Structures are given as structure tokens and as C-alpha cells.
């Protein structure tokens, strides 16, 4: 499987419309890939809190339309990072009409929106995302011809229990868009590898570059294999990271070093 991570710069002097058009062009340029991944909240900016309400859109809004067309034109599976979603009427009562969510979009090569994931863990403690957005309620593992993709977003990386649940749901490749700050870059690099090792899965972690909301982004998008080896890592600036991934390696690593089989402490029955 050929994967391309689009580490795009998110800066306040570029309009959402212009960045959407630029991102679509970058996706179309990756027609040799099987899976293309964009970062978190690349339309509005992960720390540009004041811009979120104006940038909010439904999951069938302009960003989804542009990304669906780009996925179709390139013939790729596209994890289009995340958008600021405004929940429509008739939303799940656990969530709520009119609320904002940090929502990831996964398109197939025909441009069909196959899965969405609302970020479960909201960053900010008593500020920012933690108060401005609702929390997702569902673990999402997407069955695709490329393998089962486990979806998570940025701050979710700090909660290993979510990734164990994704493994239980069959995830072999963990896709993590992010808007991680540069000041905690080493936490990012550590946690991406840790999730790969403990889950014995690939992690495709795509981070923003640039600066928004006064916060410099970490960049350093990474692809890590099920043994914890870094297959590719970007620098701090805008960059396209391309890497070959062997999905069959997940089963081999899990068979050769069957640590997941030895799980106890009230978790699912060990696999024999």
C-alpha cells in the first residue's frame, strides 16, 4: 500500500477557500497512492478558535464536496483530515443539533463518503476545543480493501485505551490527523511510536505545519510500523511524505510476538 501524508501549512493569511483548493490539488497530485491523509482542522486551524464558528460546515458541505471530487479524480482512498462540523437537525441525542464537532472524513476512490469520526478527546481542559466542541461517542474502525483503518485525532493519542478498543475492532492501520503544537513535538514523536508498539499496528500520523491561533505547529508527520520503526518522518515545514506500507506485516508481527494475546485485567478474552 502506498500512502501519502500531506503535511500542509495552515496560516491565517490564506483563506479557507484558497487552502481548500490547494489541498484538493495536492490530493489530485497523489494519483499513484492508495491512501492519502490530510491533517486535523486544516481548513480553519487547530488553534484558531475564533474562526471555528464561521468555518463550521456539515459533513456534506464545501470541504467534503471538494475532497470527494479530489479523491475521485485521483482514484485514492482519502482521509481528508478533520473539519469543524456543525451538527445537523436529527443528530444523535447523545450529541446534539447545532453543536460543533472535530470530525474526520474518509472517502473511497469513487468519492463516496464512507466513514466519519467525531473526535472523542477534546483538548484544552477548560478552554478551547474542550468547551467549544462536543465530544464524539463512537469508536470507528473502517473496513477497506487496504485493511481495517482505525480512526483517531490528535489529542486522542494520549489515551491508549481508545487505541486498544480500535485493535479489538480489527484495526491494522491507525490513521491520526493532528494539529499538534511545536512546543510538545517530542511528546508527539514518542506517543506515535508508543501507539504503534502497543497496538502492533501501523500508525499514519499527519500533522499540520505553519502557525495559527498564535501557535506554531509541530509538523513531523510520521509513518511507524508495527514494530515501532519509523519508516518516514517529515520536517517542520510543508511537505508531502510518501511511504510504502505492507499491511501483511501486522499479522506477522502479532504472530511472532503475541503480546496482545496475553491481555488481562477485565479486557476481552485473549485470542488463542
UniProtKB/TrEMBL annotation:
Key word Transferase present: yes
InterPro entries: C-N_Hydrolase, C-N_Hydrolase_sf, UPF0012_CS
Gene3D superfamilies: Carbon-nitrogen hydrolase
Origin superkingdom: Bacteria
Entry GO MF terms: acyltransferase activity
Record's keyword annotation contains Transferase: yes
Swiss-Prot/TrEMBL keywords: Acyltransferase, Transferase
Domain CN hydrolase: 1-247
The family this protein is said to belong to: Belongs to the carbon-nitrogen hydrolase superfamily. NIT1/NIT2 family.
Name used for this protein in its record: Acyltransferase
Native organism taxonomy: Bacteria, Bacillati, Actinomycetota, Actinomycetes, Kitasatosporales
